[in-house]
Specification:
Mean pLDDT of chain A: 87
Oligomer: heterodimer
Radius of gyration of chain B: 21 Å
Number of strands of chain B: 11
Number of domains of chain B: 1
Structural class of chain A: alpha+beta
Low-confidence stretches of chain A: none
Mean pLDDT of chain B: 96
CATH class of chain B: Alpha Beta
Number of helices of chain B: 14
Distance between the termini of chain A: 70 Å
CATH architecture of chain B: Alpha-Beta Complex
Helix content of chain A: 25-40%
């Protein structure tokens, strides 16, 4: 029996815009978003005659740090290359990028790692834990410059009528390109990876990686691999094509776009044809991918070493210094929270999601610890975590020390509130015998009426769920006739 | 002597002694330009008003404490250097009325040194040539005989200096574009080590070869300008952080014991008269105390293929920005020579051809670099003819696409290796056309070749002879 199955083969190219002060090859401000067009420009990023590129040292250091965070090797010699092609948004007629000798190579990132599972992972059999880990190999991390921004008259590129405007504020802004091997097997993995990538570059504080602002751009290449089970043997053929998808500009559409493309290719393959190797664009309005009007694969980039920029040489010492500058990354921090503070995997992950939250939490713990040592009032760490997670504490306005005080105060008032609440609940039950009877007969909604009545009599801000719990508890002690036992 | 015939050193002396003013000096040059530039067409743009204003300003500056090296000195600059607010064309109609919003670093340094800018000089369009015949603004004629070419691509600069339209000029060399027109026009042309002088603001021809440099009437003038221009520039990542030595200090040092290398290959296929004059000059150097040694170098003809491939590859990329969208005219304005170079360069970089052309040329380039390094273990400088012939007649470059590469054969190897070289006049042919001799020294050792050049020049005194225009 022949059973065909298509497995997705997906590789990702992600561009991350660095938030350096100045551009990649000139001193213009790199902070272009929302500014008056063509106000952050100079001869270099405008591609004027005679202008020359001078590399931004900080940008290169940050690129190396990204590579290190992705477990890459950093070759001691690397260089820039010219990628030659024509487009109105490319003022020099070539983009300065890296081809043969990029800054970082051969790294990896682990998705769904046992670190995410926390200590629960230790209870799992080794094989199961291994299967739940997905290693994504990083082929390279390199630097290049961004192009200018084209603004089309009617919002759609239209060569026939009207005109297009070019804003060079973005021309020359530093971009880091992170390329994976085609290791992804599902859209879920892709989203996990993107979230992780975004988190890492934010932790490194090298980019805001906001997809909607174009600070993080995604280009998946997608193909399907046919696996056949023939006489109980698994045969798998490598795909003979791949399709690149561009223009996915928001996180919400990543899954949709890739799934659409997978479906499109599957239909073609199932009709015994092969999808064309091409570049397609994601059409947000129609929610489909479309063949690009200009065939990009016709481009031949004629890469050659950039003669205006000498090769970059690192010493081992410099690489070590950059490694030292990398802050504790989220995976490691989450594990440390689980081990050190006895928090659950879930809660740890929420706390480390943003570095500022994690920092705030640990500062609060430190303050709390000080109080404990001084024999002053303190709280248990789990409640600090719970408050930050559940009560949406504004970490920008409430100091960690204040938070501790608030928790202390509320635990006292909570006790006080509970006593008061129990009194009122009893009274409300007495005052509303019909509602109580309805509830006992099975009308669940009746309790909500009682909650309302109770809350009217309680101070504002009391937790409705708490009220409901207390009522249900009290009601359960009553017999069907509704009298207090 | 008319004021415009002075050298920089003589002009500075005169200004200091208040024998004349900067304004008078500038007016003399402008008058000369008016008179004879219609005959030789060395200038694309003459900025009379600005020049006079600059000269007046120079005269008005207090003399004490103000030791600007070029204060009040009129200078001509090749039209591939961006000059803020002043039309810059690279002698191509593509850049027809391009007015740069910024100054090249070289221009800024000269301004800071107090120069008076007379105007921009003619060149082969985009520096693609060794004749100045490919200019879109007319041919420049050789001041020694207007039926002959001045050489190129800095033909206008060399002619303006030889004809005393200016006190000194600035050119650029990729492979021969300073030395060769200097030889054909009988003036001093210095190509510095690649990376010694900033390329920022110079219309790029071949990025790994372009070297801006002075074209002057004497060696001392050349050293003076090099001193102003040399040094690291933060706008050019390929400039060297090596500090520039004092180029003027040891010009007159005796050259006893200096080892001068002479290579037989550099005299092959050279015009008899050129060979004679250069050999005479070498004999004179020997009389001055230098030791003449025979060195074995690669035949310069191997450099032709290397240079052709590398230069045209870089050119094909460097010209890509001239799309007419942001400035200048569109690509249809490119001349035939530019188009030829773009096509060949694009081909040499294409997939499937990169390895056998561009990559291979770079490998041979390394061999040439090492060949010179080896030679310089045995000798201090190398002397050779600059050009295989004297100036060729007008029209010689037409229908001859490899004209430049063949006339520049003797300077290509040193250019490819990034070495500095200087041309000094060493005589005249029977026809009365100048013969030039080049001295090449190791990287960043310009002071060596300046020393040898100065000693020869002071003994031979060819600078005393001027063209009759």
């Amino acid at each position: 029996m022949v059973d065909n199955k298509y497995i997705s083969v997906i590789g990702l190219e992600v561009h991350v815009e660095l938030k350096t002060k100045s551009k990649m090859f000139c001193g213009c401000s790199a902070d272009y978003f929302g500014n008056e067009p063509n106000t952050h420009v100079c001869p270099v990023c405008l591609g004027l005659p005679g202008a020359l590129p001078v590399p931004n040292k900080k940008a290169i250091e940050w690129c190396v740090m990204i590579g290190l965070a992705f477990n890459c090797k950093i070759p001691l010699v690397s260089k820039f290359d010219r990628k030659n092609y024509f487009y109105p948004d490319l003022p020099k007629g070539y983009q300065i990028s890296q081809y043969g000798e990029p800054f970082c190579v051969n790294g990896y990132v682990i998705l769904n790692s046992f670190q995410d599972l926390g200590r629960e992972a230790n209870k799992m059999p080794k094989q199961v834990r291994h299967d739940r880990e997905k290693k994504i190999r990083i082929r390279r991390v390199h630097m290049e410059e961004d192009t200018a921004k084209l603004i089309h008259q009617s919002g759609v590129q239209n060569f026939d009528k009207g005109y297009s405007l070019i804003d060079f504020n973005r021309s020359g802004v530093p971009l880091v390109e992170i390329v994976t091997e085609p290791d992804f097997e599902s859209t879920y993995q892709v989203v996990q990876y993107l979230k992780k990538l975004q988190q890492i570059v934010r932790y490194l504080n090298v980019s805001n990686a906001d997809m909607e602002k174009g600070e993080m751009r995604l280009e998946p290449n997608i193909s399907l691999r046919l696996t056949t089970v023939k006489n109980k043997a698994l045969i798998s053929k490598l795909p003979s094509y791949k399709v690149e998808v561009k223009n996915i500009n928001s996180f919400r559409f990543v899954e949709k776009a890739i799934n659409y493309e997978i479906e499109r290719q599957r239909k073609i393959l199932e009709s015994a044809k092969t999808p064309i190797q091409e570049t397609r664009g994601w059409d947000e309005k129609r929610q489909i991918t479309v063949a690009q009007r200009v065939k990009e694969e016709a481009n031949e980039y004629r890469y050659f070493p950039e003669p205006d920029i000498p090769p970059i040489r690192f010493t081992q010492d410099q690489i070590r210094q950059l490694t030292d500058q990398i802050p504790e990354l989220p995976d490691h921090r989450s594990l440390r929270f689980q081990k050190g503070y006895d928090l659950s995997t879930y809660n740890s992950q929420i706390l480390v999601k943003e570095k500022s939250t994690a920092n705030y939490f640990e500062e609060a713990v430190r303050v709390n610890q000080k109080s404990k040592i001084k024999n002053q009032k303190y709280v248990d760490i789990k409640s600090i975590a719970n408050w930050i997670i559940n009560k949406k504490v504004d970490i920008n306005t409430i100091l960690p020390a204040q938070l501790i005080q608030t928790i202390i105060a509320s635990s006292q008032s909570t006790a006080f509130e509970e006593i008061e609440l129990k009194k009122i609940v009893k009274q409300v039950i007495l005052d509303n015998p019909k509602a109580v009877r309805d509830y006992k007969k099975g009308k669940e909604n009746a309790v909500m009426f009682l909650v309302g009545q109770t809350m009217k009599k309680m101070p504002k801000g009391i937790d409705a769920n708490l009220v409901k719990k207390n009522l249900e508890k009290e009601l359960s002690t009553l017999s069907l006739r509704g009298s207090v036992s | 002597m008319d004021l415009n015939q002075l050298t920089i050193i003589q002009a500075k002396e005169g200004l200091k002694r208040k024998k004349f003013s900067a304004l008078e000096l500038t007016k003399a040059c402008l008058k000369r330009i008016k008179n004879i530039d219609p005959k030789i067409n060395a200038f694309v743009t003459v900025i009379e008003d600005i020049a006079l204003a600059n000269a007046k300003e120079a005269d008005g500056l207090p003399t004490n404490g103000q030791d600007l090296p070029l204060l009040g000195i009129p200078i001509s600059i090749k039209d591939n250097f961006c000059t803020q607010g002043i039309r810059t064309t690279a002698s191509s109609r593509v850049l027809g009325d391009f007015i740069p919003p910024y100054d090249a670093t070289v221009v800024r340094k000269l301004k800071d040194a107090g120069m008076v800018l007379l105007g921009k000089t003619n060149m082969d369009a985009w520096a693609h040539g060794s004749s100045t015949e490919t200019s879109d603004y007319g041919i420049t004629k050789n001041p020694w005989n207007t039926d002959f070419l001045p050489g190129g691509s800095s033909g206008g600069a060399a002619a303006s200096v030889a004809a005393d339209e200016t006190i000194a000029g600035i050119g650029s060399e990729t492979a021969g574009s300073i030395r060769q027109p200097a030889a054909w026009c009988g003036v001093v042309g210095l190509k510095p080590t690649y990376g010694r002088v900033s390329r920022y603001g110079v219309v790029a021809m071949a990025s790994s070869l372009d070297s801006p440099g002075p074209i002057t009437k004497t060696v001392e003038d050349s050293a003076l300008i090099l001193q102003v221009l040399a040094g690291k520039d933060y706008f050019d990542a390929t400039t060297s952080a090596k500090e520039a030595p004092n180029y003027l200090k040891n010009l007159n040092k005796p050259i006893n014991g200096i080892k001068i290398g002479v290579s037989d290959d550099y005299f092959e296929s050279v015009n008899i008269e050129v060979k004679e004059k250069v050999m005479d000059a070498i004999k004179m150097l020997e009389k001055l105390g230098a030791k003449i040694k025979n060195v074995k170098l690669f035949s310069p003809k191997y450099a032709i293929a290397v240079y052709t491939i590398l230069q045209r590859s870089e050119v094909s990329s460097n010209l890509a920005r001239y799309d007419g969208i942001r400035y200048g005219n569109d690509r249809s304005y490119f001349g035939d020579e530019a188009k030829r170079r773009i096509m060949l360069g694009t081909y040499a970089l294409s997939a499937g051809y990169y390895d056998q052309y561009y990559n291979k040329a770079q490998k041979v380039r390394t061999l040439i670099v090492r060949d010179f390094e080896k030679a310089f273990k045995d000798v201090d400088v190398i002397v050779a003819p600059t050009s295989p012939s004297t100036a060729l007649p007008v029209g010689s470059s037409k229908n001859n696409p490899m004209f430049g590469e063949i006339t520049d054969v003797l300077v290509e190897p040193s250019s490819i290796a990034g070495l500095p070289g200087i041309n000094i006049p060493c005589g005249f042919s029977k026809e009365g056309l100048p013969v030039g001799m080049q001295i090449i020294s190791p990287q960043f050792r310009e002071e060596l070749m300046l020393n040898v050049a100065y000693k020869y020049e002071q003994r031979a005194e060819w600078y005393r002879i001027k063209p009759k225009l």
